[in-house]
Write a structure and sequence with these properties.
The chain has about 325 residues and is of the alpha+beta class. It contains twelve helices and twelve strands. α2 runs parallel beside α6.
Length: about 325
């Protein structure tokens, strides 16, 4: 059974084409549910939702449904770090030995010099993920294990680094990352739908693994690397603030701090965002997120001050391949 709803709020987006492509995607790739939204720096332009919360159910997804966004949460953790830097609680180049002086003897000599910037840009030489029993440890304990290893060199996309960034936040504020990001980031932006881990409840959207509905997630300590859910309308508020902040009109930070987040450290990655540079100018931010049961993409055009979000409650390869086709109906020239 195909269930879909269309909300056209403003603009000239070809909503009929978006609905058609989403229906084709769902039928071709067995996608339970899809949501796609386009926006500018002031308002949502179009909002398309289609499908059911799980493959073996008939509850339709709604506009206010919450979606797991995986690693798209990294930009939020990086922004929270920037807020703490503006509060003068640390600096971009503050080292792990400065933050955790009582743990320094447990760190590898080279890892003691690891900086905040390196953690957030995936250049800290950390493994991609904690392994085995480490996955069940606290963020502080994982920090000890990760920094006990000799760092590698170069860029390696690392959830480990963002988990440690979460431990840094907890150390500085003496509260959990979950409470800190609610208090310092989501509340000021008016974002109210955020929860941690997978959505819960009888009408919650389920992720899917090999076609079967699942209500699992990575262990809670993964939160800063990608362990939250929220509505797309609320996610738009965060993205709009990133766009406006880049141009000097953000709510959370100075323009310099937003631009620091958006400036590539490696050729194509800044702090929590993939970055596209053209003719010396930062023109686009993008990030994908998945916990293997959901998939989400955010893309922001910093020149035109527009963007789109697409989410689906499966991460199967055939489903993800439809993302560019859906995006093409939302913006003229998606990446």
């Amino acid at each position: 059974m195909v269930i879909y709803a269309l909300i056209l709020l403003a603009g000239t987006v070809n909503a009929g084409k978006t609905a058609k492509v989403i229906m084709e995607a769902r039928n071709a790739a067995n996608i339970p549910a899809v949501a796609a939204v386009s926006f500018d720096n002031q308002q949502i332009i179009a909002f398309e939702i289609a499908g059911t919360t799980r493959t073996n159910g008939s509850i339709a997804v709604k506009r206010n449904s919450v979606w797991h966004i995986g690693s798209d949460a990294k930009a939020m953790t990086a922004t929270l770090i920037a807020i703490l830097i503006e509060k003068k609680l640390l600096k971009w180049e503050t080292t792990m030995s400065e933050i955790f002086p009582k743990l320094v003897d447990d760190f590898h000599t080279n890892a003691r010099k690891t900086t905040i910037t390196q953690l957030l840009s995936h250049t800290a030489g950390l493994p991609a993920n904690p392994e085995g029993a480490q996955r069940m440890l606290s963020r502080r304990e994982v920090t000890i294990r990760g920094l006990a290893q000799k760092p590698s060199e170069g860029f390696l996309y690392s959830n480990f680094g963002y988990i440690i960034a979460g431990a840094v936040i907890e150390k500085l504020l003496d509260m959990t990352w979950e409470k800190a990001i609610q208090q310092h980031l989501f509340k000021p932006l008016g974002i109210k739908s955020v929860g941690f881990g997978p959505p819960k409840g009888a009408t919650a959207i389920h992720g899917h693994w090999k076609g079967k509905p699942m209500s699992h997630d990575n262990p809670p300590m993964y939160g800063p690397a990608g362990g939250l859910h929220l509505s797309l309308s609320d996610w738009v508020l965060f993205c709009q603030d990133q766009i406006k902040g880049h141009h000097g009109n953000g709510k959370l930070l100075t323009q310099a701090s937003y631009q620091k987040l958006h400036t590539p450290i490696e050729p194509n990655y800044g702090l929590g965002w993939g970055v596209k540079v053209k003719n010396g100018h930062i023109v686009q931010l993008q990030h994908d997120g998945s916990n293997t049961m959901w998939y989400a993409r955010a893309q922001l055009n910093l020149i035109e001050q527009k963007g789109y979000l697409i989410t689906m409650n499966t991460a199967e390869k055939k489903a993800v391949e439809w993302l560019p086709k859906i995006a093409k109906t939302l913006v003229p020239n998606p990446r």
